[in-house]
Automatic annotation (TrEMBL):
HTH tetR-type domain span: 6-66
Domain of life: Bacteria
Transmembrane segments: none
Keyword annotations from UniProtKB, A to Z: DNA-binding, Transcription, Transcription regulation
Record's keyword annotation contains Ligase: no
Molecular functions (GO terms): DNA-binding transcription factor activity; transcription cis-regulatory region binding
PROSITE patterns attached to this UniProt entry: HTH_TETR_2
Protein name: TetR/AcrR family transcriptional regulator
Residue spans binding DNA: 29-48
Gene3D superfamilies on file: Tetracycline Repressor, domain 2
InterPro entries, sorted: Homeodomain-like_sf (IPR009057), HTH-type_TetR-like_transc_reg (IPR050109), HTH_TetR (IPR001647)
Length: 185
């Protein structure tokens, strides 16, 4: 393999991530991955014996990417001067819901649960833990009780994540900020 070039396995995973994001799990076939990745079917099957294994590998890759992106978002927020807790909290949620691949991951897990293995659910827990970790880390910078975490997360999920998943308008940031303020005071 040439230096700087991704391996065929990594290339297949990247292409699969794109297809799963655009089409979902049900509508993405191994044949489509083979065509889009410009590799042979035996190459795909030698690395990923089933579509579920390919999806789990893609989800792991998406989780790693999400971790990097949330780490960067936290660094930016932590370096910003005089940023309120609520502003940073909403910013982290906005980064999370702003990626089509993350929304697709939720849609796949929610819509295709019956096709997933316990290992898939474990990977999804790790995926969601990326957001939870970033939010928890942000909370440590402020005098906000960790007892409020669940309520803050639930309101934010309903105001930002669920509308994004349903292709609906999200709650206005000012309105959400007001609702979150009530929870922490």
């Amino acid at each position: 393999m040439a230096r700087g070039r991704p391996s065929k396995k990594a290339h297949i995973v990247e292409v699969a991530c794109e297809l799963f994001t655009k089409q979902g799990y049900q509508s993405t076939s191994i044949d489509q991955v083979v065509l889009a990745a410009a590799v042979s079917k035996p190459t795909v099957y030698s690395n990923f014996p089933t579509k579920l294994v390919l999806w789990e590998t893609a989800l792991f890759s998406l989780t790693e990417r999400a971790q990097e992106e949330m780490d960067i978002a936290l660094l930016k927020l932590n370096s910003a001067k005089e940023l309120s807790f609520i502003t940073g909290w909403i910013a982290l949620w906005s980064v999370w819901v702003g990626k089509a691949e993350r929304l697709a991951s939720y849609r796949i897990l929610l819509g295709e649960q019956h096709k997933m293995a316990p290992s898939t659910f474990a990977l999804f827990v790790e995926f969601e833990a990326v957001l939870e970790s970033a939010l928890s880390e942000w909370m440590t910078e402020f005098p906000v009780s960790t007892m409020n975490f669940f309520a803050l997360k639930a309101v934010s999920k309903e105001a930002l994540l669920m509308p994004a998943l349903l292709n609906q308008a999200m709650m206005e940031e000012d309105e959400l900020a007001q609702q979150l303020e009530v929870l922490i005071h």
